[in-house]
Specification:
The complex is a heterodimer. By secondary structure, chain A is an alpha+beta fold. Chain A has eight helices and 20 strands. Chain A is 23% helix and 35% strand. In chain A, strands 6-7-8-3-9-10 form a six-stranded mixed sheet, with helices on both faces. The radius of gyration of chain A is 25 Å and the shape is globular. In chain B, a hairpin with a 5-residue loop joins strand 1 (57-58) and strand 2 (64-65). Classes of the chains: A alpha+beta, B mainly alpha.
């Protein structure tokens, strides 16, 4: 039914034949529901299927099986020029033989809009991306950032309900990229339309998205808001791909609800943690905790999950100090925030010093190894 | 200063030479002078000679009489020559248009083929060049003559009963010209078309353009440099071509190229031949300039 989801992928598979003649499932039984007005990102390493999924929505590829729905309507084999979505390409794909104005006006000309309408809508689009006054230039006379905004204006001038963006900020330098991230987010909220965004940059995804789908090898591993993906990853890949994490291998010793006790293989001792997925006693698991969640101290504490360790090295980042530890033969890292300005490093940060770390149970996740 | 320089006997430094050596203008001139000298002796000088020659007259024994007059040019205004000039123009334009009509779809198809097929197809287009031009014309004569290959094939298939008599007609000349010049049109077009990245056509489709509109608004304009290059490569030689019309057109087809050749070789009226050459060159120049200006040609000719 229209109005429920902006875009839906139902059990979509896209198969390609590699040059060697083998079958490759670039998209492997993917199901996604993208809500109206949300900023939805597909995040993953190269080759994970995120760009192919986007192209399936746009209509540049058709599914080998499964169905793509836009605003409740199955798209089947509909070509791109009949779909109510617009794309911002990674390479911008601007028409070099046209001016900025003509580029942006192209989509409206295809709709056979009147000259006045075209002029006013193009003017507004250029205003929204802050490119006024450049409408007579040709793409090659513009900087990379300006070209990117022309590509954006060209897509939004048609006021689609869904905008697809394929790693649009990849070619920009860091500062410009960060500025554009905020601009894009503001633009999306101003326009109120659905953005489907593809990126391999996890920081970008975390900054801009309402929800993220983490993908790997054609499958969606986890889908949810940034906080959920970061704090409660359900697989080791997701925990590893997003942010930094410590991993300890072990086996599940006992389970009570979602609390688990895991025997760490390297130590023979137990760690208590939270499980985010279905696991059974005896399963091989990875215990994961983010470096900023580990409590570092120079004295033992009478709580669970408190371990003695030796500092290998520490790195001063300015706002943080990154401490690398040897915990009974396992390497772990702890990020400590430099809350007070000390000009002398804390004694427990010096190499060779003995320290104690505590892994708070609610931040210690027990993940199935995939 | 190296030790060797310091111990050599001091020689007087020529102030003028030094100044010349430092001057940027002189340096530039010195760098381009080999090319300039070549250009001067092999292009500018001969051209000037032809221009001067075109204003002289023929003596009774075929020698050149140096008396400045413009009678050669007024002779060319004679309807006989006017008709020949117009006819040459027609052949040139006709060849250009037909090679463009055939060559564009061909170039488009090659540009859209997968990489491996593309090399093969380009190779096939280029292979005829490995054979001598005149021999290829004789091959066509064999095909088109009465009772030749084409006639035999058509009669065997039952399509015709009589020989077509294609040879030694303007049609035969056009067939030969198009065959000869097709690669010159296809290759620049292909280069231009191949450069158009796929993402552009996807963007056009994404913005609502059905394939035919994407072609007209994106592909065609972006292939214009190729079209211009192809036109120049076909039209200019085709206008002045005389070997092919001579061999395939028989005595009935006379082009300006034939006229020029006759004047220089048979009639031995070099001044008149020179004047005819000048007219041919001027016509070609003017038309090419007009065409390229119209097509919005600036520095984008890089094909």
């Amino acid at each position: 039914m229209p109005g429920e989801y902006a875009v839906e992928l139902r059990d979509v598979v896209k198969r390609f034949v590699t040059p060697e003649g083998r079958d490759l499932e670039a998209v492997n039984h993917v199901t996604m529901h993208i809500r109206n007005g949300e900023f939805f990102s597909m995040l993953g390493p190269s080759g994970c299927g995120k760009t192919t999924s986007l192209r399936l929505i746009a209509g540049f590829e058709w599914p080998s099986s499964g169905e793509v729905y836009i605003e409740g309507e199955p798209q089947g084999h509909r070509p791109p020029f009949l779909r109510p979505v617009n794309t911002v390409f990674q390479s911008y794909a601007l028409f070099q033989h046209m001016t900025v104005f003509e580029n942006v006006a192209f989509g409206l000309e295809m709709e056979r809009a009147s000259k006045e309408e075209i002029r006013s809508r193009v003017g507004r689009a250029l205003e929204m991306v802050r490119l006024m006054g450049l409408d007579r230039r040709h793409p090659k006379q513009l900087s990379g950032g300006q070209q990117q905004r022309v590509a954006l204006a060209r897509a939004i001038v048609k006021t689609p309900n869904v905008l697809l963006l394929d790693e649009p900020l990849g070619a920009l330098d860091l500062k410009l990229r960060k500025d554009m991230q905020l601009e894009l987010k503001a633009l999306q909220q101003q326009l109120g339309i659905t953005f489907v965004y593809v990126t391999h940059d996890q920081e970008e995804a975390l900054t801009m998205s309402d929800r993220i789908a983490v993908m790997s090898q054609g499958k969606v591993l986890q889908m949810g808001p940034a906080v959920e993906i970061y704090e409660r990853p359900t697989t080791r890949f997701v925990a590893d791909f997003i942010g930094e994490a410590n991993f300890l291998e072990g086996r599940v010793k006992s389970l009570k609800g979602d609390h688990a006790v895991v025997t760490i293989a390297a130590w023979g001792t137990d760690i208590a943690g939270l499980s985010t997925t279905k696991i059974e006693v005896g399963d091989k698991v990875a215990v994961s905790i983010r470096p900023e969640k580990v409590r570092l101290s120079d004295a033992p504490a009478a709580v669970e999950n408190c371990l003695e360790c030796v500092v290998s090295t520490s790195t001063y980042i300015g706002s943080d100090t990154h401490v690398y530890l040897d915990v009974r033969g396992q390497r772990m890292k702890v990020w400590e925030q430099n809350r007070t300005s000390r000009l002398d490093p804390r004694s427990i940060y010096r190499a060779g010093a003995t320290a104690w770390i505590t892994l708070p149970r609610e931040n210690t996740l027990v993940l199935a190894t995939d | 200063m190296s030790a060797r320089e310091a111990s050599a006997p001091p020689h007087r430094r020529n102030a003028v030479l030094d100044r010349l050596r430092e001057s940027r203008i002189f340096q530039g001139l010195a760098l381009i002078s080999p090319a300039n000298i070549y250009l001067f002796f092999f292009m500018i000088l001969p051209l000037a000679m032809i221009v001067v020659l075109s204003f002289q007259s023929r003596g009774s024994y075929g020698e050149v009489v140096f008396r400045f007059n413009a009678t050669n040019y007024t002779r060319l205004l004679d309807p006989v020559y006017a008709r020949i000039l117009v006819y040459s123009l027609g052949v040139g334009l006709g060849t250009t248009v037909i090679t463009m009509l055939i060559g564009y779809p061909l170039a488009y198809y090659i540009a859209r083929s997968p990489a491996r097929q593309r090399s093969l197809l380009l190779f096939l287009i280029l292979v005829p060049f490995w054979t001598n031009f005149v021999i290829r014309i004789y091959a066509w004569i064999m095909i088109l003559r009465g009772g030749g290959l084409l006639d035999s094939l058509l009669q065997w298939l039952g399509i015709t009963q009589e020989p077509l008599g294609l040879l030694y007609t303007p049609t035969a000349v056009m067939i030969g010209m198009v065959y000869e010049f097709l690669p010159f049109m296809v290759l620049p077009l292909y280069t231009s078309l191949e450069k158009i990245e796929n993402a552009l056509l996807e963007a056009a489709a994404d913005l609502g353009a059905p394939p035919w509109r994407a072609f007209l608004r994106v592909t065609l304009p972006l292939s214009v440099p190729g079209m211009i290059a192809g036109t120049i490569l076909v039209f200019i030689p085709a206008m002045g071509m005389f070997v092919l019309p001579d061999l395939m057109g028989g005595a009935k087809t006379l082009l300006i190229g034939n006229v020029i050749r006759n004047q220089f070789l048979t009639a031995r009226d070099w001044p008149f031949g020179a004047a005819a050459s000048m007219i041919l060159m001027l016509m070609t120049l003017l038309l090419t300039l007009y065409y390229t200006r119209r097509a919005g040609f600036s520095e984008d000719l890089l094909v």
